[in-house]
Amino acid sequence: MLYWLLKWVLLGPLLRVVFRPRIDGLDNVPASGPVILASNHLSFSDSIFMPLVIRRKVTFVAKAEYFTGKGIKGWFMKMFFAGTGTIPVDRSGGRAAQAALNTQLRVLRGGNIAGIYPEGTRSPDGRLYRGKTGVARLALESGAPVIPVAMLNTDDIQPTGKLMWKVRRVRIRFGEPLEFSRYAGMAGDRYVERAITDQIMYRIMELGGREYVDVYAAKLKTAPAVPESTA
User: Residue 103: phi, psi to the nearest 5?
Assistant: First the structure.
């Protein structure tokens, strides 16, 4: 109930007026049935604006720590994520990725929409990074079509590390559905899953026009800084 109140009464109408979303290809999202929305990830606000423009509920997963914070900030974080339909997943330990996958499979098997960021984390510099193969495994095990999504300017609206948002017109593009029934029964084949993931990422790149970098964004974020030369 809180999800729909936020979307249609408490928060959504204000966001639509202020940020005036400009959406291309929204008719590519079917009115019913299981669907995977695979998007690039530029900003925290992606998880707000993408579901805002779709009439159906979009479910993401997020680390459980977002639901266990202390104090007023922790309470607001918990209420926000719960209200936006986000499902907490314990991402500690080696089974974290499988836990997230199982959760999204339940969403899809219920005939609903699962949202996923194949990069696994926000882009550190606006470029599109190598996708993790969980999106391919999800498509193969559920049989659901994948809709590639390009968030075009949310990093300008909410730059990384900034709390305040800039008022800009939100722009999002939804691509045509990708289906992978020809690979039915091949979940777990790492070559097939990599090929599917790369196809999805290539389509996101085409939609968004961002430079593609064939490394994982998380690896780049954890790499030690290279000192500047003094020569």
Answer: -65, -45
Indicate the burial class of 92 (C-beta count within 10 angstroms; 0-12, 13-18, 19 or more): exposed
Name the token pair of 65.
């720590």
Rounded to whole angstroms, the Cα distance separating 206 from 133 reads 19
* pTM score of the predicted model: 0.90
Residue 102, number of CB atoms within 10 A of its CB: 14
Torsional sign, CA 193, 218, 25, 141: positive
pLDDT tens-digit map of 107-157: 999 999 999 999 988 999 999 999 999 999 999 999 999 999 999 999 999
Give the Cα separation of 140 and 71 in Å (integer).
41
3-class secondary structure, 193: helix
Q: What's the pLDDT tens digit per position in 6-40?
A: 889 988 999 999 999 999 999 999 999 999 999 99
Cβ-Cβ contacts under 8 Å for 86 (sequence gap 6 or more): 47, 59, 60, 61, 62, 66
Tell me what the mean pLDDT of segment 71-85 comes to: 75
Residue 227, class by beta-carbon neighbours within 10 Å (0-12 exposed, 13-18 middle, 19+ buried)?
exposed
